[in-house]
Amino acid sequence: PMPDTPNRPPTSEQMRAWIESVKDPSQILRPKRATKPRPSPEVPTIKLEGDIARQIETARTIMGPDAFFGPEQIKEKYPYVRLPDIIPPIPFDQDRMERERNADMVLRLVCDTAQDGAPLTGSKLNELLLPSYTARNVTFLFNEPWYKTDPLFTTQTPRLAWVFMATELLPDSTNKNYVDQTQTIAVHIRNLWQGSDARMPQQDRDDLREWDEYYRANFAAQTPEEITALLNGETIWKKYAQELSNLGINQHNRGNLVEHLDHIAFMRQAADKKSLKTTYAWTATRSDDGFLVVVGNAEAVGAFLHRWEPGGSDGAIGVLLVRR
User: How are strands ordered across the β-sheet holding 161-166?
Assistant: First the structure.
């Protein structure tokens, strides 16, 4: 049985000891019952065996059923995508999952292929969702001409992986340019591992080191006003947009455009949550003409896709974390 802790969740030590004591991983979420419920004929059972099955059961227990979305949830709630033939292993340990859970993240398996086998591009996702959205008299994407002719809309896909994703903007990330937002991400990572530096993943270490070096080389000697002027500079803003979006800290903590569109759709379908309902996420994607893409305000008229120079800022535009 689970550790008896009335009115409060079990401690990390209790959870770890309990998980390790369970020989059959299915017992973690599916205790033995007198009768076994029959699976719905509309939702084929996903058979997972060996290490990946144990990983999924353990991860769902740690994250909680409302913050874990794996193959079963995708098959049942999000039929627009195709699961990979081989489910990738979950690359996060229990300590990492507990920290991300406490930071209000959800753990998702993100797929890169549509149900018909086509790449899950923004154009394809919009096509797949159009009938169900139209039936509710709403639209998925607001009709803006620029993205329909931009190659990223027909070529970019989500990155197949297990990722931690937020449902709300990172606190203190709005009203900031792209540099200051990235600095806010760095602060978040350091706070996440505060007091446990030795346990910080190597990727976070490398990203923070790269960011610190880049910031010192480009902005440390500048005032906030001078930084904004640089980021909006007529001849160099594209240089900064490219460099900033390619930094590891942004590639590993911001989603690309299609990942955010997929997350908006997935959370509404699978969890009945409206992500980016009245706010915007500044992505790590650049449009074909060099701007950094912003997505959000996903209400009845459809999500808006905007293009911004890195020096811009707005009270509704922030960081929606997508951590790998």
Answer: 68-69, 105-110, 161-166, 322-323
Q: Are 286 and 243 in contact (CB under 8 A)?
A: no
Distance CA 124, CA 107 (A): 24
Among all chains, which residue has been given the structure tokens 């923070």?
208
**Residues sharing a CB contact under 8 Å with residue 312, sequence separation 6 or more, in sequence order:** 177, 178, 232
Task: Give 226-263 pLDDT, tens digit per residue.
Answer: 999 999 999 999 999 999 999 999 999 999 999 999 99
Q: Tell me if 284 sits within 8 A of 245, measured CB to CB.
A: yes
Distance between CA atoms of residues 71 and 226, nearest Å:
48
User: What is residue 197's DSSP assignment?
Assistant: G
- Alpha carbon distance 288, 286 (integer Å): 7
Residue 219: half-sphere exposure toward Cβ, Cα within 13 Å: 22
Distance (Å, whole) CA 280 – CA 259: 14
The DSSP symbol for 132 reads: H
Task: Label each residue of 57-115 as H, E or C.
Answer: HHHHHHHCHHHEECHHHHHHHCCCECCCCCCCCCCCCHHHHHHHHHCCEEEEEECCEEC
CA distances from 268 to 60, 167, 255, 275 (A): 20, 11, 18, 8
Q: Are 165 and 100 in contact (CB under 8 A)?
A: no
- As given in the structure block, the two tokens for residue 5 are 């802790």
> How confident is the model over 89-133, as pLDDT tens digits?
999 999 999 999 999 999 999 999 999 999 999 999 999 999 988
- Does the pTM of the predicted model rise above 0.85? no
